[in-house]
Fold this sequence. Notes:
By secondary structure, this protein is an alpha/beta fold. The chain has eight helices and five strands, in the order E-E-H-E-H-H-E-H-H-H-H-E-H. It has a three-stranded parallel sheet. The protein has a two-stranded antiparallel ribbon with strand order 1-2. Strand 1 and strand 2 (11-13) form a beta hairpin. The longest helix is centred in the first third of the chain and has 15 residues, at 16-30. The model has no long low-confidence stretch (mean pLDDT 84).
Amino acid sequence: APNVSYDGNNVIHHVGAHNMVRTLNWIFKNFPNPSHIFLTGCSAGGTAVPIAYDMINKHYNTFLKGGPRAVNINAIMDSSVYLTPSYFLQYGFPNWNPETIMKNKLGFNYNKYKDEENYPDLVWNHVLRRGSNSDRWGFVTHSTDPISLMFYQYMSGNEN
């Protein structure tokens, strides 16, 4: 897991993807034949919902698990954070080590799109193409949020 110090003193352990994979593996083992799955997440937790959806869809909805649509998956995200200015993509995002999960678990061409400011849109398009039209998505967001605006400013490399 990547360990990063942004200020030279405090170490941040970016292990969210590892935690999600371990949790999903536990779910796959303990719930071998669900009929319906509902995913939810808020803020940064909502940002990963499409990735979790894709991994769950790939695991449960295969011919080996009962056919192409063995499990219905629905999701709702509240105020997901999709802030990807160029500065963040170049200097911050690699610290999260997204390449492994995006390439190995999702089959997403991370190297091709890693520097694109519309990276979240490209991930969404990839996930939705692989999903089912019968699954339902909900997305709650806002047009004005001083906290999101502050994070975007910091992630753009402009802390003033």
